[in-house]
Amino acid sequence: MAHELITTDTAGTTPRRIADSYVHALAELDPLTAVYLGLNPEDDRITDLSPAGYEALADLARRTLADLDAAEAAGAADSEAERRCARLLRERLTAELAVHEAGEDFVSVRNLGSPVHNVREVFPLMPTETEEQWRLVGRRLARVPEAMAQYRETLTEGIARGLLSGPRQVTTVVGQIAEWLEGDAPGGWFGAFVQDAPESVRAELDEAAAVAGTALAELRDWLRDVYGPAAAATPDTVGRERYVRWVRYWTGAELDLDEAYRWAWEQFHDLDAQMRVEAEKVLPGSTPMQAMKWLETDGPAIEGAEAVREYLQGLMDQAITDLQGTHFDLAEPLLKVESRLAPSGSAAAPYYTQPSLDFSRPGRTWLPTLGRESFPVWDLVSTWYHEGVPGHHLQLAQWTYVADKLSTYQVTLGGVSANLEGWALYAERLMDELGYLTDPGQRLGYLNAQMMRALRVIVDIGMHAGLEFPADSPFRPGESMEPDAAREFFGLYCGLSADFLDSELVRYLGMPGQAIGYKLGERAWLRGRAAARAAAEARGEEFDLKAWHMAALSQGSLGLDDLVEELAAL
């Protein structure tokens, strides 16, 4: 049984051993997470998505915390490394249990990162180099109907408890599933995925893909016809009490929401002024929105999905070449990162997936094409500094590389979203500081990315906490931050497509507290760097940015409540 991997006699047991036992125990209970970690490669199961499955995960967390209590009482957290690991493990499991015990598992219909998304997205991460690996794919595909039935069981219990997702989430997910099922291949996306399998196994894979597609179609119909009407009166926002709980989960911080809201408005006004300067360079006499629309339609662009994939690959390869030895000291496994096109039906935002623990699967960036064939570059450059190099790839791949010096938990499951996204936004700023964004269009793209993250703090906190547009807002001062007003405001000051912004609004409503971590996380990274620089100068030493970067990237995950202090001491 999985729980037997957790030590019950903690004599001689350290927090790091407990944390790593937790990783392996969770991989047994959660096979989808095991795929992301590169563990249990022969396992063809799908995570139990029923209420009993979620409770089993919660029980594992409770037992782990009990083991940690005993170990700390016995003096096992007596070194800096053990103390840091213990602090992270306790903070993360406590935050996760708070979410679980509030019934949030029953409210899991959302346009990104939901159980149904996780099931589909695990398949491109599975190895498919041999016939047996393809057979394992087929066996997991055949389990999709059971997983969808378990997911419906959880949502049905949510209906009974009066815990439902908002109507926008339901409508969006129904549409996403419909898109996944499009195409001539049996099972839609699943059928298309197995087209590259060897002929010797194609028949069984086609059958398994068709079965998986049928299960998804049934879920789509149930969401539309049963869950949707039940959720029709559910607010799309979550309210301050639920929001505070989710903020802790996503940021690892007890956040002063009102202070963060005021600070984000200060950032908004500063960025708006900077964007006006760059817009004048791009298109004299234009506003930022006019300049960005011109860049979108008439500026430099890459034609074709494969061509843009190659362009982004080259962008990351060049960044590694330029930064290696000057601002970073990267081990050989980190020098490989792959640019990929995201599966159809993905959310609009690009994303990154971490290497497996043995680096047999490299880090990968994913670009949703959204049916496009032309890709303007003005906003892609800064985005790939964020998603790839020196952003998510350098942090998450470095964590993987130093896992044996920390704990597997600290560099995988213990990842705090605001730490990760804060580093990636810091990485964009770093490339601007190093002179990589001097082209006016590309720098306007960078500033627009910064503006989007500031707007996320404003909109996310404002909607869910029920705040008003402040008196100095250029848009509806004094009015309540309702979702429709938030979307209109977002569109006036963020130069990304309407479809993207629509998807973003649904994302913020379905993942409350997650989107604020980018800008607030960057603030923590910048404050930590400034404190470390000041300390070096106070000692009469020159600040070594490369050494600081590598030390910062090698300390593993931390919540924002701890991050500034730890960065300042490096």
Describe the structure.
With 570 residues, the chain is mostly helical. It folds into 2 domains: 2-234, no CATH class; 247-517, no CATH class. It contains 24 helices and 5 strands. The protein has helices at residues 15-29, 31-37, 51-73, 80-101, 115-122, 131-142, 144-161, 167-180, 189-193, 199-231, 239-251, 257-282, 288-298, 305-323, 380-387, 392-401, 408-411, 417-433, 440-465, 483-493, 498-510, 517-538, 545-553, 560-568; strands at residues 301-303, 337-341, 351-353, 363-367, 374-376. The strands form 2 sheets. Strands 2-4-3 form a 3-stranded mixed beta sheet. Strands 1-5 form a two-stranded antiparallel sheet. Helix 1 (15-29) runs antiparallel to helix 3 (51-73), helix 18 (417-433) packs across helix 22 (517-538) and helix 22 runs parallel beside helix 24 (560-568). The protein is globular. InterPro entries: DUF885.
Secondary-structure blueprint:
Layout: H1 15-29, H2 31-37, H3 51-73, H4 80-101, H5 115-122, H6 131-142, H7 144-161, H8 167-180, H9 189-193, H10 199-231, H11 239-251, H12 257-282, H13 288-298, E1 301-303, H14 305-323, E2 337-341, E3 351-353, E4 363-367, E5 374-376, H15 380-387, H16 392-401, H17 408-411, H18 417-433, H19 440-465, H20 483-493, H21 498-510, H22 517-538, H23 545-553, H24 560-568
Parallel strand pairs: 2-4
Antiparallel strand pairs: 1-5, 3-4
Helix pairs in contact: 1-2, 1-3, 3-4, 4-11, 6-10, 7-10, 8-10, 11-19, 12-13, 12-19, 14-15, 15-18, 15-19, 18-22, 19-20, 19-22, 20-21, 22-24
InterPro entries: DUF885
List keywords for this structure.
DUF885, 5 strands, single chain, two-stranded antiparallel ribbon, 570 residues, mainly alpha, 24 helices, disordered N terminus, 3-stranded mixed beta sheet, globular
